Amino acid sequence: MPQAFFITQFYLTIFNPLNPIFILGVSVMNGLVYAVGGFNGSLRVRTVDVYDPIKDMWSSIASMEARRSTLGSAILNGMIYAVGGFDGSSGKYGKRSQMAEGSFNLAGVSRC
């Protein structure tokens, strides 16, 4: 007999006093929440902030090279990928970051 699985969506609001932003990329790895890029109400930002829910503490890691909002982010093999997005005038490209170091490296550039 087939089993039914139900997925429940929930939303969690976390205020980031370091960099209050919206329309950003969000990914989770090893219990940490990564807030990537976004829009602060005036400008697109290139910041990457990390939230540790156990310590209830934010910290900043290396920023992306380009400012962008409305982007996707995902984690694969210990790397965070920031994909697409908007810089205020045109579409953007993909980048990746080594999570342990927090520095961004070129992963391949393509126009969206």
Task: Characterise this structure.
This protein has 112 residues and is mainly β. It has a single domain, classed as Thrombin, subunit H (Beta Barrel), CATH 2.40.10. The protein has no helices and eight strands. The strands form two sheets. The chain has a four-stranded antiparallel β-sheet with strand order 1-2-3-4, with no helix packed on it. Strand 2 and strand 3 form a beta hairpin. The chain is globular, with a radius of gyration of 15 Å.
In helices, the fraction of residues equals: under 10%
* Assembly of the depicted chains: single chain
From the N-terminal CA to the C-terminal CA, the straight-line distance is 44 Å
Looking at the structure, what is the overall shape?
globular
What order do the SSEs take from the amino end to the carboxyl end, as H and E? EEEEEEEE
Name the strands of the widest sheet in spatial order.
1-2-3-4
In short:
With 112 residues, this protein is mainly beta. The chain has a single domain (25-106), classed as Thrombin, subunit H.
